[in-house]
């Protein structure tokens, strides 16, 4: 059952309704008049919420409350490829050890394929690979947005050295260079 409308709510609605003009050929519904008087603020809840507690720790804007990623797990701004190395990869002076195209895959399938590809490339001794995500519709594809997060995940920290946007001839905004760490001797 709906609660009855309070007089101050009714008065406020009638002020809003008075500013609306009907479409041609339609009539406005009559709005009953409410008694005038001061508008009273709504009652406070019986149990107000306690004020939030802040421990003084640093946080990132947009970070989910209660979820703190380690520095290594944060998105790629911290893990870019060194500029000289990126230039060598773009000019193909450092060979691109492999390419994977994630077009048309679901997020789950793309993530699994990417992780398997990176581990296989690392085991084969590749030092850099190209990951093609595509731009998506209007340049905001989900794979394009999520791939840097997947690459920065702690599970791939032993493989991925850094990532950067690819040169235009390798896919530009729709592709990433992924620098791989050297394989451990032994």
In round numbers, the mean pLDDT is 77
Name the helix and strand elements from N-terminus to C-terminus, one letter apiece.
HHEHEHEE
Radius of gyration: 28 Å
| Main β-sheet, spatial strand arrangement | 1-2-4-3
Tell me the total number of β-strands: 4
Low-confidence stretches: 67-78
Q: Overall 3D geometry?
A: elongated
Q: Helix share of residues?
A: 25-40%
Strand content: 5-15%
Structural class of the helices, strands and pairings? alpha+beta
Biggest pleated sheet? 4 strands, mixed
Q: Separation of termini?
A: 73 Å
The number of helical elements comes to 4
Task: Summarize the structure in words.
The structure is a single chain. The chain is of the alpha+beta class and 186 residues long. It has helices at residues 7-18, 83-90, 107-123, 142-151; strands spanning 99-101, 128-132, 160-165, 175-180. Strands 1-2-4-3 form a four-stranded mixed β-sheet, with helices on one face. The longest helix has 17 residues, at 107-123.
Question: What are the salient characteristics of this protein?
Answer:
186 residues; alpha+beta; four-stranded mixed beta sheet; 4 helices; 25% helix
Task: Summarize the model shown.
The chain has 186 residues and is α+β, with helices and mostly antiparallel strands. Helices cover 25% and strands 11% of the residues.
Q: Would you spell out the secondary-structure blueprint of this structure?
A:
Elements: H1 7-18, H2 83-90, E1 99-101, H3 107-123, E2 128-132, H4 142-151, E3 160-165, E4 175-180
Parallel strand pairs: 1-2
Antiparallel strand pairs: 2-4, 3-4
């Amino acid at each position: 059952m709906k609660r009855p409308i309070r007089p101050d709510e009714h008065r406020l609605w009638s002020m809003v309704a008075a500013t609306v003009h009907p479409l041609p050929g339609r009539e406005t519904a009559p709005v009953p008049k409410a008694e005038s008087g001061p508008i009273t603020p709504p009652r406070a809840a019986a149990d107000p919420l306690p004020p939030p507690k802040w421990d003084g720790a640093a946080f990132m804007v947009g970070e989910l409350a209660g979820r703190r990623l380690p520095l290594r797990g944060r998105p790629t701004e911290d893990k870019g490829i060194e500029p000289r190395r990126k230039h060598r990869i773009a000019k193909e002076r450092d060979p691109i050890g492999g390419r994977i195209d994630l077009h048309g895959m679901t997020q789950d399938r793309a993530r699994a394929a990417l992780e398997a590809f990176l581990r296989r490339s690392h085991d084969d001794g590749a030092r850099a690979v190209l990951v093609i995500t595509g731009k998506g519709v209007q340049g905001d594809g989900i794979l394009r947005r999520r791939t840097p997060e997947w690459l920065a995940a702690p599970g791939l920290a032993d493989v991925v050295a850094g990532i950067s946007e690819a040169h235009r001839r390798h896919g530009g905004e729709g592709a990433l260079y992924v620098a791989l760490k050297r394989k451990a001797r032994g």
